[in-house]
Amino acid sequence: MNMNDLSERLFKTLSHPNFLAMKGLANEVPIFIQTYDPAQEDAIRRTVASLAMRLQNTGITIKALDLFNLVLEELDEHNVLEDLVRDEASSQKVEILETLQNYSDPKTHLIPRLIRAIGEDGTQLTLITGPGRIFPFLRTHTILESLQPAMLRHPVVIFFPGEYAQDPAGGSHLRLFGSIPSPRINNPYYRATNLDHYRL
Question: How confident is the model at residue 189 (pLDDT cuts 50, 70, 90)?
C-alpha cells in the first residue's frame, strides 16, 4: 500500500462535507475501518499524524487517539501502571494479561474513557490507532460491539492492521494481522464501514 496514495484518498474522503455530516449512513453508527498491512505499522502512524494535522489545517476539529495509550492512562489513573512495570519480570504472564484485561474492559473502562476522550466539544472527526498494540488483551470487535449508536455524534475512523470483510447476507469479520479472525459481528449497529470500499 502506497502511503501517499492512501493519505490523499483519506484526505479527500474525510474532509468532504457529506462524510463529516454522516450523510447516507441510514441507521448505522458512523464507524469506519481503514485496513492496512501490519508490516506498515510505523508508516501508518506517521501517515495518520500527518493526515490529522492536514485536516486540522483545513479547519476540521479532530481527535487523534491511540487505544494502547488509553489503556496506559486507565492503568495510571488507578495507580496500577507503576506496579505493573516494576513487577513485570517477576510476575506470571497470565497475571499481567488478567490485569490488562480488567483495566481495558470495554464496558467498564475503555469505552467510557474513549467517549470522554472524544468529548462533546465540537469534535467533527476522531481517528483511532493502536488495535494491534492492545492485542491479545483486547480485540477490536469487542470495542465495536460496546460502542452504542447514541455515543457517537461524528465519524470515527479506526485504523486496523489486518483485513475487514462484510458478508453479503449481513454480519462482518475482522482478521487481525490478516490471520487472527474475530467472531462474526451480526448486529448491524456494530457493523463498521470499510473505507477501502467507501464512496461518497
Answer: very low
Domain map (residue ranges) of the chain: 3-66+123-194
Torsion angle of C-alpha atoms 34, 5, 52, 154, degrees rounded to 10: -40
119, three cell numbers: 468529548
Q: Which residues neighbour 138 within 8 Å (Cβ) at sequence distance 6 or greater?
A: 67, 71, 100, 101, 104, 106, 110
Beta bridge partners of 110: none
Q: How far apart are CA 48 and CA 75, in angstroms?
A: 25
CA distance 159 to 177: 12
pLDDT score, position 135: 74
Digit-coded pLDDT (tens) for 18-33: 899 887 655 566 889 9
Measured CA to CA, the distance from residue 75 to residue 37 in angstroms comes to: 29
In 69-155, the DSSP E strands lie at 125-129
- Length of the chain in terms of residues written: 200
Q: What is the pTM of this model?
A: 0.83
Question: Taking each helix axis from N to C terminus, what angle separates 41-57 and 3-14, rounded to the nearest 10 degrees?
Answer: 40
Separation between Cα atoms, residue 89 and residue 97, nearest integer Å: 13
With b meaning 16 or more CB within 10 Å and e meaning fewer, what string describes 141-174? bbbbbbbeeeebebbbbbbbbbbbebeeeebbeb
